[in-house]
Amino acid sequence: MHEEISDRARTLLRALVQRHIRDGQPVGSRSLQEEAGLPVSAATIRNVMSDLEERGYLHSPHTSAGRIPTALGYRFFVDSLLEVKALDDASVDILRSALNPDKSSTDLVQTASSLLSAITSQAGIVTVPRQEAQQLRQVEFLPLSDRRVLVILVINEREVQNRIIHTARDFSDRELREAAALVNQRFGGQPLDRVKEQLLGEMREARSRIDDYLTATLDLASQALDPEERDEDCLVAGEAHLLDSAGAEDVDKLRELFEVFERKKDLLHLLERCTRADGVQIFIGEEAGYEVFGDFSVITAPYGDGRRPLGVLGVIGPTRMAYDRVIPIVDVTSRMLSSALAR
Prior knowledge:
Blueprint: H1 7-23, H2 29-36, H3 42-54, E1 58-59, E2 68-69, H4 71-81, H5 89-98, H6 105-120, E3 123-127, E4 136-143, E5 148-155, E6 159-166, H7 173-187, H8 192-208, H9 212-225, E7 234-237, H10 239-244, H11 251-263, H12 265-272, E8 281-284, E9 296-304, E10 309-318, H13 323-342
Antiparallel strand pairs: 1-2, 3-7, 3-10, 4-5, 5-6, 8-9, 9-10
Helix pairs in contact: 1-2, 1-3, 1-4, 2-3, 5-6, 5-13, 6-13, 7-9, 8-9
């Protein structure tokens, strides 16, 4: 709970945060007097600022007579003073066009991270749906030369994956058709990770019966349905935007943050906490649970396919980001991505 502060203090705190977000510099009393437009003296404003500093909402950098918001100040601003803007039509049109439901789920998720970065000028983040959320719909096998087989997988209704596998023996066209029919009959509609477990069990059973053809068929299916190794569980786009808004004193902090992007462990842990959240979540500074986020804010929202949550998307930027614009962008992007995935 925030302490009660006067209407005058609220007005001045709002004006100071807005000025600092816009300029990135400590705000002095005269600048604040101009920004707030209150009919009070600079001395009165200094007294109010001093009181807000004692309460922990403002901080005085030792190199300046002005003040900047603390994480607590930003939290009060976001919770009590912020007026969120409706998303402009141009941004809505960009999102609607790019998040086309005819795209595969993989393309949609990759697009979302780039869109968030481009529209907000911050770093965009999106977690990739877990493998168990992918269901096998259909598989086809087509023979190639040199014991190679083209595998065509249909995942989650409309996502099509193609891959080439190498087999230990030659398969005829008829054998490949029969193998596909067997896989589709036994495993169609099941999650890929469960299919893999069942295939391994049936392969062990077939080998114990010395059923060479069934063993070869199941081995073919196992290769075909082995989930592809994903390089990314979390996609991050637009890290360069963070450099654009950083000063020389922020370089070391950014280096640590980029290491988090590289390792992704801490970032994924944070985003996992947001998967089942209801709507937009805002973490300011160390509210995220990690010291490395001390000068940054993370704004997230979950996305799904209408039946279950699939992941989280959001934005990472400096604490002085334009919350009034970034929050609705994250919110609308999550809704549009969910709508596209539901079709």
